[in-house]
Amino acid sequence: MNAKTPSLIATDALQKITAPLSQAWTLPPQAYTSCEIFAAEVDSIFSKDWICVARIDQVKAPGDYICADLPSQPIVVTRDQQGQLHALSRVCLHRAMPLVEGQGNTTRLVCPYHRWSYELDGQLRSAPMMTGVEGFVESAQCLPELQLEVWQGFIFVNLDPQAQPLAPRLSGLLPLVSNYAFSEMQVLETIEYDSPWNWKILVENFMEAYHHIGPHKQTFEPAYPARDAEILDNEGQPWVFLKMPGGHRVTVEEGAFPALTPAQQHDLIAVCVFPTLLFGASAAGAAWYQLEPSGVDKMRLKIHGLYHPSVSGEPSAEDRAEVAAMLKLIHEEDIAVIEDLGRDCRQR
Amino acid sequence: MTTQGRLSLFEQGIWQLNQLWASGLGLKKPNHSG
Fold it and tell me: In whole angstroms, what is the distance from residue A302 CA to residue A190 CA?
């Protein structure tokens, strides 16, 4: 324990959290409402752990870039002209202006304010009208670069330069997801929400099937009953794996994942790589929930439908619309209960 | 702290998340069992 413990969570509340499952309680309400606890999460979790910010297929060509927002740092992931990936602060070194937004393809990152321009590896290329400024050397200026690691096509970054590699900590998860070949998947369609609740509410919701009997009683529950769901032992590693067997209730036609075992073809899976990477898959397809917390009670949520180009071919506009409609249907079933939960937490 | 709720045995995923959260904040040592 560290010195912050007593002020963050009362001792009895912590004991209830850490008790064995059969004796355990939820997090206390302030875990979802306290600005002090969110600040501690930013310092101790979001600045130390590996955070998923993009997919490899979103930056596949030289010059591609995509922006993401960590709670304490706006960043941009780039692929330079040599094909190398970089995760950079996207704040101009001059006056702290964000250099770019969204995603696209470019030869350089150019600040819209005073036209300072940077190479895609973060090196300052030019700073107009800075001649004569004592001690200013363009070649010595470089955007801060973060550690970057790719796992199963998901791009992770880490603000901690001393962080240990991620993949060894996911070695127990890899065999559970490898047949889905996430490395080869591409983003098919994305829907976005500005969500007025704490990030943990959505992560918890994603990683339990108990609520299938509530908001999903007509969608998930008939195929993937809550009582059949199973959590696998993560041995304390930073991932959670939820298996929801569909069995004979799920009819498999031409699946999106040809390498699945016969049993896997009938399962729905949900995965969290702690803290904020969420993804799920069935034989029919996959989804990735990208969370960007920006405060104790707000986050940006991007829900991406994923597909296998080698299996599905080029998707049509109808395919995209169908996936977006399904993602929207499921999430809005969740919103119906999460909104009330978030409101209740704020009132406590 | 009466506003904490009891977890069901069907919420082991939340329990695992809570252990990771508490470990991440330095509130407890990493846990290797459920």
Answer: 6
Contact criterion met (CB below 8 Å) for A66 and A103: yes
Give, for A336, the enclosing helix (H) or strand (E).
helix A317-347
A314 touches chain B (CB under 8 A): no
A196, A293 contact by CB (below 8 A): no
User: What tokens were used for B4?
Assistant: 């904490």
Strand partners, A292: A300
Would you say A279 and A286 are in contact if contact means Cβ atoms under 8 Å apart?
yes
Contact A24 B7 (CB under 8 A): yes
CA dihedral A57, A62, A67, A73 (to 10 degrees): 120
CA A129 to chain CA centroid, nearest Å: 40
> Chain B residue closest to A213 (CA)?
B10
CB A96, CB A73: distance < 8 Å: no
Q: Which of B2, B14, B23, B28 to mutate to test the interface with A (most CBs of A within 10 A)?
A: B14
Query: Burial, A314: exposed, middle or buried (Cβ in 10 Å; 0-12, 13-18, 19+)?
Result: exposed
One pLDDT digit (tens) per residue for chain A, 348 residues = 454 445 799 999 999 999 999 999 999 999 999 999 999 999 999 999 999 999 999 999 999 999 999 999 999 999 999 999 999 999 999 999 999 999 999 999 999 999 999 999 999 999 999 999 999 999 999 999 999 999 999 999 999 999 999 999 999 999 999 999 999 999 999 999 999 999 999 999 999 999 999 999 999 999 999 999 999 999 999 999 999 999 888 887 766 788 899 889 999 999 999 999 999 999 888 999 999 999 999 999 999 999 988 887 888 999 999 999 999 999 999 998 888 776 666 665
Q: Please determine, for the modelled complex, whether the ipTM score is greater than 0.90.
A: yes
Contact A41 B16 (CB under 8 A): no
Chain B residues whose C-beta sits inside 8 Å of any chain A C-beta: 1, 3-28, 30-34
Nearest by Cα to A311 from A204, A180, A196, A190:
A180
Q: Does A2 touch chain B (CB under 8 A)?
A: yes
Q: What is the pTM of this model?
A: 0.94
Q: What 3-state class would DSSP assign to A189?
A: strand
